[in-house]
Write a structure and sequence with these properties.
Largest sheet: 5 strands, mixed
Number of strands: 13
Structural class: alpha+beta
CATH architecture of the largest domain: 3-Layer(aba) Sandwich
Number of helices: 9
Strand content: 25-35%
Distance between the termini: 16 Å
Shape: elongated
Radius of gyration: 21 Å
CATH topology of the largest domain: D-Maltodextrin-Binding Protein, domain 2
Oligomer: single chain
Number of domains: 3
Strand order of the largest sheet: 6-5-7-4-8
CATH superfamily of the largest domain: Periplasmic binding protein-like II
Order of helices and strands: HHEEHEEEHHEHEHEEEHEEHE
């Protein structure tokens, strides 16, 4: 759904489904697909930590972002009633966004599945009459399911931010750009001593860019050390360049994850 929203009006799409995030990145890196649309943050669930790790590890770049209003629905085979359902399957993030609904139905066993729409596809293909999926209404339309309950997410202000990710050597392809860049994502690591994080963030302020998000992830094998991920907004490419150069002087590792137009 996010892929169609981001690219459907511009390109003919051949969407390839994957069950694991690592598989998605592998297909991008080896050229099996042109790019990937991946969730990075949800307004209810928070950040998708695994995707931050993979953005740092793999030779990819963020070239676009979009915000999608997420509306979850309980979907089953036609003719199935709510009282027939014993098990509900969906992506773990979708399940976490529907906690109140699931708590109100203790008769349902909630189980993780690799994808929201994929859960409905699986139910329809296997003709499961005691299982329902949590997915967008488009999944019901696409696979012939029936909506048993609509809008079951915990809060109506449920938005997910998605990134379009491509291989490093494809990041300059104008097909993927949607306007002049005014946002940048960075990953950096600093020396493990007092004051270094504050000093690094001060360099961003001095360069005239606006810090809009900061996230930390542990460094494997180095307890209590972290990689920091930041999003910044800027009004000119020169300011962005200045910010990167200033941070290089205070970071032992710095990677620009992408420059793109803010959603």
């Amino acid at each position: 759904m996010a892929t169609v929203a981001m690219l459907g009006g511009e390109h003919e799409l051949d969407i390839v489904a994957c069950s694991l995030s690592g598989e998605v990145f592998a297909k991008v890196v080896d050229g099996a697909v042109d790019g990937a649309v991946l969730p990075i943050e949800n307004s209810l669930h928070g950040s998708v930590a695994e995707h931050y790790d993979l953005l740092l590890e793999e030779p990819v770049q963020i070239v676009r972002e979009t915000l999608l209003r997420v509306r979850h629905n309980l979907i089953a085979m036609p003719g199935v009633r709510m009282s027939d359902v014993r098990r509900v399957i969906s992506h773990p993030v979708a399940l976490s966004q529907c906690r109140r609904f699931l708590a109100a139905h203790p008769e349902f066993e909630a189980a993780p599945f690799y994808d929201t729409a994929g859960s409905v596809k699986h139910i329809m293909a296997s003709r499961l009459r005691d299982v329902a999926g949590i997915a967008p209404v488009l999944a019901a339309t696409q696979y012939g399911g029936e909506v048993l309950a609509a809008g079951i997410e915990d809060h109506v202000q449920n938005f997910t931010r998605f990134h379009l990710v491509v291989r490093d050597n494809a990041s300059s392809d104008k097909r993927y750009l949607n306007g002049e860049a005014d946002k940048m994502s960075l990953a950096f690591a600093i020396e493990h001593r007092p004051g270094t994080l504050v000093a690094t963030l001060e360099r961003l302020a001095q360069a005239g860019v606006n810090l809009t998000k900061i996230e930390s992830r542990p460094v494997p094998g180095s307890p209590w050390e972290y990689v920091f991920y930041v999003d910044v907004r800027f009004d000119s490419a020169e300011r962005a360049d200045e910010a990167v150069e200033a941070m290089k002087q205070h970071c032992r590792m710095l990677k620009v994850l992408g420059r793109y137009r803010a959603a």
